């Protein structure tokens, strides 16, 4: 038999690529879908950047932390503030960019280059449409000019 060694799973990538529905998130965290909807509308938890109808692992973390605060008698806003502080502290304690494996860095670099190319294409299309005096005038003045029209 050949020598074989397992490679540890990239849990960060897996966690960020989760795409849970509101119902799945609520069931997983022991919440109601109404709580998930309310917390989302208030900005306490965020939907996935890729799909606004789905939630990734960060939402799971926040829901669990907020729920812990509520179960211990904290008001919702206080529970949210403490959950955010706790998450920030956790991120600060975790390994930095050096812990990202090279294939992931290559993937990140290619995605950033693609984003740069998209931004450049949009700027190229928009530039001719921007009035020349707009670069010299403050935005408030432009809005006043538009209101006068």
Question: How does this model look, in words?
Answer:
The protein has 149 residues and is mainly alpha-helical. The protein has two domains: 11-94, Multidrug-efflux Transporter Regulator, Chain: A, Domain 2, CATH 1.10.1660; 100-148. It is 62% helix and 0% strand. Helix 2 (22-29) packs across helix 3 (33-41), helix 2 packs across helix 4 (57-71) and helix 4 (57-71) crosses helix 5. The longest helix has 25 residues, at 102-126. The radius of gyration is 22 Å and the shape is extended. It starts with 10 loop residues before the first helix and ends with a helix. The model has no long low-confidence stretch (mean pLDDT 81).
Shape: extended
What's the CATH topology label of the largest domain? Multidrug-efflux Transporter Regulator, Chain: A, Domain 2
Mean pLDDT: 81
Number of helical regions: 7
Poorly predicted residue ranges: none
Q: What proportion of the residues is helical, as a percent range?
A: 55-70%
Into how many domains do the coordinates divide?
2
Q: What is the CA–CA distance across the termini?
A: 80 Å
- Largest sheet, strands/sense/barrel: none
CATH class of the largest domain: Mainly Alpha
SSE succession: HHHHHHH
Please tell me how large the radius of gyration is.
22 Å
- Look at the helices and sheets and give the structural class: mainly alpha
């Amino acid at each position: 038999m050949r020598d074989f060694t397992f490679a540890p799973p990239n849990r960060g990538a897996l966690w960020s690529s989760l795409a849970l529905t509101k119902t799945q998130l609520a069931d997983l965290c022991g919440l109601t879908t109404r709580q998930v909807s309310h917390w989302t509308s208030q900005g306490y938890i965020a939907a996935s950047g890729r799909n606004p109808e789905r939630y990734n692992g960060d939402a799971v973390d926040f829901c669990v932390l907020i729920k812990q605060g509520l179960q211990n008698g904290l008001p919702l806003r206080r529970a949210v503030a403490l959950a955010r502080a706790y998450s920030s502290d956790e991120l600060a304690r975790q390994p930095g960019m050096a812990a990202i494996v090279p294939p992931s860095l290559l993937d990140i670099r290619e995605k950033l280059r693609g984003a740069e190319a998209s931004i450049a294409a949009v700027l190229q299309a928009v530039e001719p449409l921007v009035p020349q005096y707009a670069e010299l005038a403050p935005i408030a003045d432009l809005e006043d000019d538009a209101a006068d029209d």
